[in-house]
Queue: 2 jobs
Job 1
Amino acid sequence: MKEKKQNIIIIGAGLCGSLLALRLGQRGYNVTVYEMRPDLRKTDISAGRSINLAFSDRGNKAMKMVGLEAEVKELCIPMNGRMLHDKDGNTLLSNYSGRDYEFINSISRQDLNALLLNEAESLSNVAIHFSKKCLGVDFESTTATFEHHDSKEKFIEDADCIIATDGAGSALRKSYYLERKFLFSFSQNYLTHGYKELAILPADDGSYKTYKNALHIWPRGDFMVIALPNLDASFTVTLFLSYEEGAYNFNNLTTPEMVLEFFKKEFPDAMDLMPNLVEDFFRNPTAPLGTIKCSPWHYKGNTLLVGDSAHAIVPFYGQGMNASFEDVVEFDKVLDMNLPNWESVFKTYQANRKPDTDAIADLAIDNFHEMKDHVGKELFQEKRKIEMALEKKFPKDYSSKYSLVTFNENIGYREAMLRGRAQDKAILNMLADEEISTETDIDTILQKVKTETQKILEDNEVAQLH
């Protein structure tokens, strides 16, 4: 694109917004970012609602693009697999991949965001303003109205285009459906479950209280607890539980006695690691889990939704941040196409990207059920053993659905979903029919899985499920 329009406003200085500001600044645009919260580098703004982040290959693509791969690696703790905990305290480490070099990383949201903000602000053509809430956007004039947090004074800023990276509660997206100036489709679907953040603190000697290099899961069918390691030897623990259903739910866990009874019965080994359990439980809020889809992401070639503002997802594939970072990579690719104007850029970006963001939203829901329930079942564990063996013996010929999504950053989420679901169905069907088992010759399994997967893909194509 002939870059005649140089001034860009970005609404939101979270992970996606700070990355986008950095990249657009590197490309020579004049970028002004407005963030409604205080500067997280000076004030703790997590408020018990920051699920730890799983950083993987798709996110790392973006770090390579902006030249920060080495700096981000310093913030990462590798997690090679899921450490499954049963009610008796027994554990099983289930690797994410049969290839030793494939793993995900636990990373601090605040540390990563601070790094991106510092890098963006180091550019003379990028300015970031905090405690400035966006009240709405006027599409006709390409202006946004903001309010100072302290004084409540309102002011209007204009630009050549406005890009919103302000998350699930996006002010720009709200303007899209309230103004009713064009046909705008929007859906917001909540799980029946919410989440509450807890913590495992470091041991008295400053060491980790449990195994460091894994994502810990306590799957219990209808609910679960997970824990991710932090650099200070603590773990960020998250309870996922129904608001209303089951013997224990967020609506009836109202006393310390009930909370302790629940954890003693369901998560006794986790409880032993958390003497701070009751304090954390009643101090930290319970937050909802929802999926947002909408269309179009742009209007009149002057406004655009990117990241969670366009496609918020639940956190169960560890891809929310990675997907938003990949948004910026895909947007950058479209800018390289030298299209004639912003409208062409935005239309091409959405056409290229939306099928993949819809796919990862659906996959994240799938993984919610897998993590809280299926991972503890024998048939699923057999499937994972076979997949690990296939990936180990045939690293170039087989990738599980999880590997396709998480480690194959050069294929889209939609392709990964279609191929991965077909493979899952093929293996589970053959295990149930006793056509294969963990004792079957691995070369035979590969051929059977390939043949059956192809049949399923072809059947789906005929049925127009693609």
Note: The chain has 15 helices and 19 strands.
Job 2
Amino acid sequence: MAEAPNESKGAADFASEAISYLDTLYRGALRLTRDPAQAEDLVQDTYVRALRYQHSYRIGTNMKAWLFAIMRNLFWDRFKGRRGENVSLDGDGEFGLYDTLKDETAKPESEVLDSLAASEVVRAVEQLAELHREVVLLVDVEGFSYKDAAEVMGVPIGTVMSRLHRARQALQKSLWEYAQESGIVHGESG
């Protein structure tokens, strides 16, 4: 029996919208796996699963978040065995960039960050604990709202906010140390 015209159009619309996120999903998969071949496999498996379960997709919801949730679940199932890393949620306390400046003539934060090499920023993000890196990539890189990131990660919004805060503190500390070593800023961290 042939599909009704509106069902066929719905499937075509679904596929068209889903495929529009291919590049975004690949970038996300590459950040998760850190391996191009594994990232390609992860994206392919994500689309296979999305097509298989497209009946569960609610029209009008965020397709990008839905696809990222599928990809994240596949990643944890296949690459991490759902174990995750032991992530300390205890911070070193407040670490404000300006709190560490001893020199009143120090450059504003934006000038400091503009001076940092992009490769150093990428390195700092890659050194984050897995759960912290994931939230930074979703919120700060991919532009997900806290609500959508929470949905993708399967955690409460407060957990997203907490992990993001801790991740940003770690990034700030790492990049501050790099800026000092590179002579971009002067002063000692406190």
Note: The CA atoms of residues 92 and 169 lie 9 Å apart.
